[in-house]
Specification:
This protein is 52% helix and 0% strand. The longest helix has 10 residues. The two termini are 26 Å apart. The radius of gyration is 16 Å and the shape is globular. It contains nine helices and no strands. The chain has one domain: Dioxygenase LigAB, LigA subunit (Protocatechuate 4,5-dioxygenase, Chain A, Orthogonal Bundle), CATH 1.10.700.10.
Amino acid sequence: MKPNFDQFKDIPGTTIFTIEKAREGFQLNEFCMSLRTQENRDRFHADERKYLDEWEMTEEQKKAVLDRDFQRMLDLGGNVYFLSKIFAAEGLSYVQAVSTMTDMNVQEYQAMMLAGGRSPDGWRSKKERGEA
């Protein structure tokens, strides 16, 4: 029996990596894993678009990579553990990269995490803010 992940769609800041997302993001995640080698990182940085065109990703996925829009990459099937290969290739720490997926700068995000994470009080539902 497949779990009902729809129940989590109302939680702000939550992306569930389902089998459907895994299928959607397969080529994106394969591209990310290719960045493990220096040779591929050098090829990517030399001509990003040319290197991306070697992968059967959608144009939307390629644009998200070019824009370094990590949240969009997650939305398009990217897995944060694979996306970390892009972070590393860019010389970003995990905290720096993940903070771009929030409405906080790096220092605010780091302070929030060191203080125990996002407060359970406050915005708990997209419907509460008129999003859905």
